[in-house]
């Protein structure tokens, strides 16, 4: 059941939905997912960063917030 819970969660089902589907508490799913994540190998990090990229979503969210503020004025 543990592996099925982790698979559902990783596939995007969410903690509460996974818990409901399997009949277990959502915190149990969270604990299992956290334990599984801690066993994954660390990602290699370069000693020196040459290029850093920003995700476009930051700009999109910033624009969306600005528009919503203007609409409320």
Unreliably modeled segments: 69-73
Class of secondary structure makeup: mainly alpha
What Rg do the Cα atoms give?
19 Å
N-C termini distance: 52 Å
Shape: elongated
Question: Element order, helices and strands?
Answer: HHHH
Number of helices: 4
Share in helix: 55-70%
Total separate domains: 1
Instruction: Write down how many β-strands occur, each being a DSSP E stretch of 2 or more residues.
Output: 0
State the major sheet. Answer: none
Task: Report strand %.
Answer: under 5%
Mean pLDDT: 81
Question: What would you note in describing this structure?
Answer:
This protein has 73 residues and is mainly alpha-helical. The protein has one domain (2-40, 49-72). Helices cover 64% and strands 0% of the residues. The protein is built from 4 helices and no strands. It has helices at residues 2-10, 15-22, 26-38, 56-72. Helix 1 (2-10) packs across helix 3 (26-38) and helix 2 crosses helix 3 (26-38). The N and C termini lie far apart (52 Å).
In short:
Helices cover 64% and strands 0% of the residues.
Any chance you could write out the topology, listing elements then pairs?
Elements: H1 2-10, H2 15-22, H3 26-38, H4 56-72
Summary keywords:
73 residues, mainly alpha, 4 helices, 64% helix, elongated, disordered C terminus
């Amino acid at each position: 059941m543990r592996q099925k819970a982790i698979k559902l969660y990783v596939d995007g089902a969410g903690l509460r939905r996974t818990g409901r589907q399997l009949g277990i508490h959502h915190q149990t799913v969270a604990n299992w997912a956290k334990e599984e994540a801690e066993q994954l190998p660390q990602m290699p990090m370069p000693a020196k960063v040459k290029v850093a990229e920003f995700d476009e979503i930051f700009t999109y969210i910033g624009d969306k917030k600005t528009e919503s503020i203007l609409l409320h004025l």
